[in-house]
Amino acid sequence: MSSIAAAAAYANVARLGDPSASGLGSAAGLGGAKPGGEDFGAMLRGALDSIQSSAKAADGQAVAMAKGNANVVDVVTAVAETEVAIDALVAVRDRVIQSYEEIMRMPI
């Protein structure tokens, strides 16, 4: 996962936080996917798949370096990209948990 992909993931998360931009504030948006758009579950699966492929690429680079077939800079770059992707995922997870706790505190 490159820094451009991480920036795109942050932009997608920012759209989720803005009900007027994503349609999540409407009654239709609460039940599932926005018409013509991607639902949260699909976006999350895509992000997890991207992180997994990034981690596998970093592992492959580390193995190649151990065999003497890779440059140290390539390994460090791959590991750093994976770290950025995981940090983004943790930030989204924390925000989802915070939102859930806020909803649970609302009076009914």
Helicity, in percent? over 70%
Mean pLDDT across every amino acid position: 77
Task: Give the topology string: H per helix, E per strand.
Answer: HHHHH
For the sheet with most strands, the description reads: none
In the predicted model, the low-confidence regions spanning at least 5 consecutive residues are 21-33
Task: Give me the secondary-structure category.
Answer: mainly alpha
Span between N and C termini? 42 Å
Q: Return Rg in Å.
A: 18 Å
Q: What is the count of β-strands?
A: 0
Assign an overall shape.
Answer: elongated
The total domain count is 1
Number of helices: 5
Q: Please state roughly what percent of the residues sit in beta strands, choosing from under 5%, 5-15%, 15-25%, 25-35%, 35-45% or over 45%.
A: under 5%
Explained architecture:
The protein is an all-alpha fold. It is 79% helix and 0% strand. The chain has helices spanning 3-17, 19-22, 27-31, 40-66, 72-105. α4 runs antiparallel to α5 (72-105). The protein is elongated.
Walk me through the topology.
Layout (H helix, E strand, L loop, with lengths): L2 H15 L1 H4 L4 H5 L8 H27 L5 H34 L3
Sum up the structure in keywords:
108 residues, mainly alpha, 5 helices
